[in-house]
Amino acid sequence: EGASGRTASASAGAEQDADARDGAAGGARDPETREERAARRARWVAARRAVQAAREREEGEARGGEDAPRGLASIDAQIAGGALDEARASLDALSEAERRGPAARMSAARLHLAAGAPARAVQELEPLGDRPDAPAPLLALYGRALLAAGEAERAAEAFASSEARDAALPEALLGRAQMAVRARSPREALYHIRRLDLLLRDDPRPSSFRAELELLRGRALLQAGRTVSARRVLRRLVGTSDAPTAAHFHYAQSEVGHDHVAARRAFERYLELAPDGRFAGRARHALGREGP
Predict the structure, then answer these.
(1) Rounded to an integer, what is the distance from CA 88 to the centroid of its chain?
(2) Exposure of 237 by Cβ count < 10 A (0-12 exposed, 13-18 middle, 19+ buried)?
(3) What are the pLDDT digits (tens) for 173-182?
(4) pTM above 0.85, yes or no
(5) What is the DSSP letter of 66?
(6) Contact 266, 249 (CB under 8 A)
(7) CA contacts within 13 A on the Cβ side of 171
(8) In this structure, what DSSP letter does residue 68 have?
(9) How far, CA to CA in Å, does 160 sit from each of 31, 156, 173, 278?
(10) Which residues touch 43 (CB under 8 Å, ≥6 apart)?
(11) Which of 33, 197, 268, 282 makes a 20 to 30 Å CA pair with 203?
């Protein structure tokens, strides 16, 4: 541990220089000039305002409009707060007609995703998500469910369709960034993340949404070889209460070769939270373990 402290201390002075080189390298890879980026930002702000009213109407349609059960907002709040049993009971209390509506289906899909049952979430949304008139918010949720269920190709189609219907919908852009990270296309991922950064200035989302965004940012930076910037993003993220479990694994990766004690602790923390998780085997291998 003392040796690691000395290593971290010795590298602390160099890290700022590395950050500067990292940022400069990222800028060199950006195909846009400053003027082009400014113009794109202005277009996005204008587009954001232009589609807001249409999006609100579309979301109302996706939620069932005036016919949507009034208790669905509280059900979604229960899901967001982790009260899954209460949310399930509230859904079960809906009438059969209400339960078949798009609003209830979206809430049920969120519940299944929160409970770790993505296949059931897909089943909830499939009758609506495959329709040509499916609204953007529903398609974004459908893409999220498909991706969690391992159907990456269909998820990519759903996210692309969602963005085509509403180019300023944050959930659609988050999905596009997720697909790019999975395809190990960091340049494309960072492009979508920059778009999200602009949109979220005027369109706040819950802290859990922003945590997912920061995880994707860290992963994309790692894939782009911008390790110092990735480490900074992921270190900050794992210190928050909303950090996704996978953030600990990717933070550990960013510390490998830099601070082996921090890397080890982060791998161990990931295994504590997700002993059977997607990255559990790689985390155990990094720790020199063959089994749980």
Answers:
(1) 24
(2) buried
(3) 999 999 999 9
(4) no
(5) G
(6) yes
(7) 21
(8) S
(9) 23, 6, 9, 25
(10) none
(11) 33
